[in-house]
Specification:
The structure is a homotetramer. By secondary structure, chain A is α/β, with parallel strands linked by helices. Chain A folds into two domains: 175 residues, Rossmann fold (3-Layer(aba) Sandwich); 163 residues, Dihydrodipicolinate Reductase, domain 2. Chain A is built from 13 helices and 15 strands. In chain A, strands 3-4-2-1-5-6-8-7 form an eight-stranded mixed sheet, with helices on both faces. In chain A, strand 13, helix 12 and strand 14 form a beta-alpha-beta unit. In chain A, helix 1 crosses helix 13, helix 7 packs parallel to helix 13 and helix 8 runs parallel beside helix 10. In chain A, 57% of the residues are buried. The N terminus of chain A is likely disordered. Chains in contact: A-B, A-C, A-D, B-C, B-D, C-D. At the B-D interface, helix 12 of B face helix 12 of D.
Chain lengths: 362, 362, 362, 362
């Protein structure tokens, strides 16, 4: 693209506490956008990093929509090196990289004294059985095992205190975020009859499928269509099992590809052990998320829609209870690139650096 | 619109065995399109009927896309009257009318010796409890009760023989068709553990919401969005209960509004009583639908998508079984205006008139 | 909808320098969103006004997507009255009302000492011939004539100084903004051979058609479709003629309805009097908009796309010149609800109150 | 995909007068669909051909939507060879191949006594200057020159008689079809002031960009967007110049990518030499296309929309005249895969084989 920036601010090349590796994808771009506007970093743009052997490239050549009048047009994506990170004073490194690359980089990053927020699935899962689907090449190595022990699952609503002091935050999966936040209060309270099974029927916009052009992301496949995929085989399943303390036979998770750019809606089905009242359920949710600025609870009987949460960092939750009080349908919505990826990562950053959890996310 | 028809075929005003009342909506338009091309009615267009007090109107003024070179442009929508139906020799009357109107018209139509295919929900439900949601004004009257007894649920795959001789066919709901066809073989075989509950998560294109402009059908609401609605309260639920012989506490059905013009995908979740094999399940489906030309069974582990069935009269069914053989996800797809409405109505017509079931639907 | 706000800030009911009448439509909602986040009004939410006889209603009941954690959930839309405006200390009144209502209200507002930014077409046109298409009921009255004389066409890039001191700003039409900004530099420079005619082929997302559910805004009409409308008859034509000093026979403007929620792309065709060079044209544009923070000029031969400008207040402009240097295709893009409506209105507000033009719009 | 065909008709492997090379793309698939239903070929499926070195593959494995109950599921795509074509008795070979491949194959096909309908741009252009954009490797060779002389531009509305006897038909470009049909009557009549320039602003659905997954066809680029491309450089421009007898400086053609799967709308702008009346223009169009079954003329002042023509073989044409009778906006719509590709190819086939022009296209 051919934007010519209006001004070139030399300050933008100065010291910066944060860096992003992997800014070419959708989550990386959203992260860049959020950090460029973050009030705590005004005047100090993040360090944007590409492959070690890449030529420097203008950020707005890749993402014309990021250009604005504050000099963003002159920002460069620089070749990755540990020296560069040290020279710029980077404290927190975001990895928006494929999971194999994150597995490889994180040990070195920690050795260099960096704190890491990893947006991939590399370090989210404690149980080897749940990690099997990733087929990590370093699975079982002593280094990887040691690092996994330190990793904190980066869902502030569940692990806020641990995140504040974490060296390595494993940012949750987008589907997993929408499901875990909606089910955790009910499951924790012991209300759900898990022997009857929990059904998670999730639908995601196409940005969740990544930026690589494929048969799946071709407009002609995605538009005017809906398809289920990876049934009983999606990588986010392990996150559900670990964070909700469920066994594999207690849950079914089916993701679908929606003909929209962004947004996830999960429809969740539980059977209660004993009849419940709508007001009691609503109250349980409100108490559970009382300190959480990015969860919005809808009044009983009102359901969120994808439109309400897209372009925000909110996870919206609503529910409908059957007349007998035993069957409950919960609907949760979020923007897969924000609360489901970059926005949640900034929440984690804020906690790690001692800022207000919501700074830069309003 | 301003089409000027090229030719006017006087034959098109001649005798016709079929008539449609309510041609302004989407299902009525599809029905008109199908019957205009039906090989058994070449040269004898259906009688198109509007309100008794309406002025005659060109069909293609309402639906420009129906115009072609065989004179369709000159076809009129005529004011409804019983005399007109008699004079034209109509034997089968399609009602694409609101359900209250169908309740009112059917007794008279039968009195006039007409056979009726009703596309509304007026006569689909045998049990008063299941009909309650419709709040019919004639509920419980002796006439209505007598007529309901004669009504045949118009799903050829389940009631083919009864339909051949039916005087009144109640054409199934679009959601109900996608769910019943996919679950019936498994439930009939006694494989499903109904005590654990069946989950039906269905998604429909906007044409299912009707032609009236409303806040729900506004492009700004439907596009880039997904929303669940009528949870535990959708009118098609009764059809599921009756055709699958289930009790209300054994099933949950959640419809969603998809940002696409047409098509339904239902994702169905069952738990089996005993472990099953994929090949056994596929085989069960194939046997069940061996004589049914409009059900396509996918090989085990392959799932249909909305795109494959749209603009066809097929209901596509596929499934994925869990490793333990106990949890099964079934996906079914169809075009809500064809197999879910007008196409299934033509299947029923073919059976009633002794034609091949698939004539005019290839 | 059922959001229950988390906090209720009593400050939000305090004095406020701005009010919006007509917050139910899309432009009104965007305006509310922008003003709620405007750094100059933190702690002082705008006054939101509905009909004089309306009951107070929560803003987020109408627009759930506006809810956030700063108390917006408790904001009320209050019944309109002049007393209320006075009591709240309102200085600037935004009118997001139909044009007939704006014609009626503006004289009273000025009498009450308010400054007005009107988003309708009521006061944009100086020439009676150009206003004829609106059929104003007070056309030609002495009051209306006097007020029209004071009205400033609210396009900061053309009338920045006049807007600073204006009592009444007529916020431009969305199509007109995209066309005038792209053509003004070329026409002003005298380069365009207007005797050969200028073609303006514009395409707009559905939000431009308003929030009322109509046959035109029904998803089934707008989706998978494109249609031209109001050819030689669109109300924005007069704005083109007046702001570009053209006569009606020198321009053709054709609007089209795009199957997307928001965004306008105008493709503009001019013939030059003498051959030009790409670099010269680019340079002309850059000089013309050197002081304008919300116009982005693309390098010669690079064209903007709707995606780059949506959800921003930018108007993006690019062009392609023919090999002979005589025929030029200019493409301009903007978000019809921001630079084409609410965003431009906030630019005007900033100028009127002596703020930086870009405050609250980054 | 896993369709298991219900029946295997051995007849489908018998002699066939037609073959398609290149059935994997969108135009090839539509061609397969049309020919499988063509009444003149019932019981004799076309020969479907892939690369010479490809393994046989089921047609419905590639295109599940083609499966139906008449045995299509068993149809094979066979490796290309001239012997196979001879053995099957093929008379007409469709090439749905890239243009370089069509350049290479056509001389051999003619040598083998085959008649060819080529859907690529290989043989559409008579003038070397207009072909330059293709950079054919055999440009100027005596063989290529001789073949080009025999090629007939396959637009039945303009060259019906020549097509009947053609050995090689060059099927027109999709954009070119929509523009030439709409302009030819006006230009031929000498009404258009070509010295003022003709503007062709065209918009196409994504299927026109081909099946290969690219950054351009990625859902995230195409959806919620509109972009102009190849301004002053599109390959179809030469077809406009040759078929309308215009010089390059008399026309500007700008294609745009629409966020819809299929359909083209062209908005065309002409200035008349002398004022015209709407009725005269409409009459001119009707006379010009009196014998053409696939052009629908709209009444003066009524404009076609993409929806009316999609899934049909019609080109719809409407216009709006300015009050002074001098400026005229013409809108034409068609389905780029049917009238813009496969449908027009079948029209040509029908003419070549002496069938009714509209057979198999109703």
């Amino acid at each position: 693209m051919g934007f010519a920036p209006k001004t070139l601010s030399s300050e933008l090349c100065a010291l910066s506490p944060v860096a992003i590796l992997g800014v070419s994808g959708y989550a990386g771009m959203e992260l860049a956008r959020l950090l460029l506007r973050h009030p705590r970093f005004s005047g100090t743009a993040p360090v944007f990093l590409g492959r070690p052997d890449s030529a420097p490239e203008r950020l707005t050549a890749l993402h014309p929509q990021l250009l604005d009048n504050n000099g963003a047009g002159s920002l460069q994506i620089e070749p990755f090196s540990w020296d560069l990170l040290r020279d710029r004073g980077v404290q927190v490194l975001f990895l928006a990289t494929p999971h194999e690359q994150s597995r490889e980089l994180v040990p070195h990053a920690l050795d260099h004294g960096l704190r890491v927020i990893d947006l991939s699935g590399a370090w989210r899962l404690e149980q080897p059985a749940n990690r099997a689907v990733y087929k990590f090449s370093d699975e079982g190595s002593s280094v990887a095992t040691a690092i996994q022990t330190q990793a904190i699952y980066g869902m502030p609503e569940l692990h806020r205190d641990a995140i504040r002091h974490a060296l390595l935050v494993a940012n949750p999966g987008c589907y997993a975020t929408s499901i875990i936040l909606a089910l955790k209060p009910l499951v924790s309270a012991g209300w759900v009859d898990t022997t009857r099974g929990i059904v998670c029927d999730s639908k995601s916009g196409v940005s969740g499928a990544g930026k690589a052009p494929t048969a799946k992301t071709h407009f002609m496949h995605a538009a005017d269509n809906l398809s289920a995929y990876n049934v009983f085989a999606h990588r986010h399943t392990g996150e559900l099992l670990e964070q909700l303390s469920l066994s594999p036979d207690q849950i079914v998770f089916t993701p679908h590809l929606l003909p929209i750019p962004r947004g996830i809606l999960s429809t969740l089905y539980v059977w209660f052990r004993e009849p419940q009242q709508p007001a009691t359920i609503e109250s349980l949710y409100r108490r559970f998320f009382a300190e959480s600025p990015f969860v919005r609870i809808f009044a009983a009987g009102h359901l969120p829609q994808i439109q309400y949460s897209v372009h925000t960092n909110f996870c919206d939750i609503g529910f409908q209870l059957s007349a007998d009080g035993l069957r409950c349908v919960i609907v949760s919505c979020l923007d897969n690139l924000l609360k489901g990826a970059a926005g949640q990562a900034v929440q984690n950053l804020n906690l790690m650096l001692g800022f207000q959890e919501s700074e830069g996310l309003a």
